[in-house]
Amino acid sequence: MSSSASSPRRTRRARRRSSPSGASARSASPKRSTMNCLDSSVVIDVLDGEETVVDALEEHDDPFYAPTIVRSEVLEGLLAGWFDGADAGQSLSWLRSLGFTREAALEAAHVRMEFRRDGETIPDADTFIAGVVRANGATLITQDAHFERVEGINVAVL
After folding, report:
1. How confident is the model at residue 59 (pLDDT cuts 50, 70, 90)?
2. Which residue of 10, 108, 113, 127 lies most exposed, with the fewest beta carbons within 10 A?
3. Domains observed in the chain
């Protein structure tokens, strides 16, 4: 996969409130962001050669990032044979990593508390992914619409 990318079929603007650490949401359009972060669902579809996802991403000019938790989820799937893909080490070489820093951990904790406050839930791994995305002011490109409920991040749902 080249390091170019595209505008997803459907984008939604996240709530424009600042996160608890002060990071504000950016424009929801992945084309305008210099940091497009991919969720596991999108990376897996790229590795499986899903045309609509690959075509959408190939129109982007900026590099793609993935939180390290996404890399771990995808590598687990590759090693377990849950989906098609090439050599696990080479399969993700086109992605830049975003680590789970102290700021990301704080953001993830805030995300978890915001969902609890609202009486909602979100999978643990997705809490960590949202924390990394929010801490970096990135746009999350995903196929999981529940990320649209996370305050302070921009989400592009393919």
Report:
1. confident
2. 10
3. 10-157 (3.40.50.1010)
